[in-house]
Design a protein that fits this description.
nine-stranded antiparallel β-sheet; elongated; Urate Oxidase; single chain
Length: 246
């Protein structure tokens, strides 16, 4: 019987990710790597997987995935190969008023696959944001409830896009950005900023979609926004996917 796929799943592996400012950021990725092997091929493929990963681990960017996957595919005589790499990525971010620096953590993921005819690449990010309820603001005598939310954006692209630029684009689609460290003047700013920019999850996901749709290097996208409601036990959620590949 032919197997659909064999590989390794959720192996923790140290890698270095290219940064927009130059250099590399050391992080630890959770990696799933699998191939579709010919029926005749029975040897253990894990040593091949790990050997190729070690070769590329000091210079990871999504655009190197085709070469990495083709090397695995050729060494194992496989019909296809797929790689998913999820990792925390840190960006220094300054507070809006005091400019106090701190490190913000974002979850990012590179996914790639290669077959006989083509390569497929996908970049994914998860970005924390703040949303403030328009309904609460409208009906309340004073105040409005707000909450932390998370935007997940997945894209296929024509030309390489830096993680930093993608994250900045997404953070603008919110009532206010989230910061790792705030002092009192900063807290005043973010509270009032959110109050002046109320939006439902539907509003936030539409703003992300508009930004992605107008980006010259994004060919396809999907986006979801989950709001971890402060006055409900449940979350609110909205999702959108582009109609076609541009």
């Amino acid at each position: 019987m032919n197997l659909t796929a064999v590989g390794i799943k959720n192996i923790r592996f140290p890698v270095k990710i290219r940064e927009k400012a130059g250099g590399h950021q050391a992080t630890v990725a959770s990696i799933t790597l699998q191939v579709n092997l010919p029926r005749r091929f029975r040897q253990n493929c894990v040593p091949t997987f790990l050997g190729v990963l070690e070769k590329y681990q000091n210079d990871i960017a999504v655009e190197i995935f085709p070469a990495l996957l083709r090397e695995i595919k050729e060494e194992l005589q496989a019909e296809s190969a797929q790689l998913k790499m999820t990792f925390p990525y840190f960006i220094e971010k300054k507070a809006p008023v005091t400019k106090t620096p701190s490190l913000m953590e974002y979850t990012c993921c590179f996914t790639g696959s290669t077959g006989n005819d083509s390569d497929d690449l996908l970049m994914s990010i998860w970005v924390p944001i703040t949303t403030l309820c328009p309904c609460s603001k409208e009906i309340s005598a004073y105040g409005a409830h707000n909450q932390r939310a998370e935007i997940n954006l997945n894209i296929k692209f024509k030309n390489f896009i830096w993680l930093e630029d993608l994250i900045t684009m997404v953070e603008k689609s919110s009532s206010c950005e989230v910061y790792a460290l705030l002092k009192r003047p900063d807290e005043k700013y973010v509270t009032e900023m959110a109050y002046e920019n109320p939006m439902f999850v539907e509003d936030a996901v539409r703003k992300v979609a508009e930004a992605a749709d107008s980006h010259p290097d994004i060919l396809w996208f999907s986006a979801g926004v989950e709001s971890f409601e402060s006055i409900h036990k449940h979350s609110a959620y909205a999702y959108v996917v582009s109609d076609t590949m541009r």
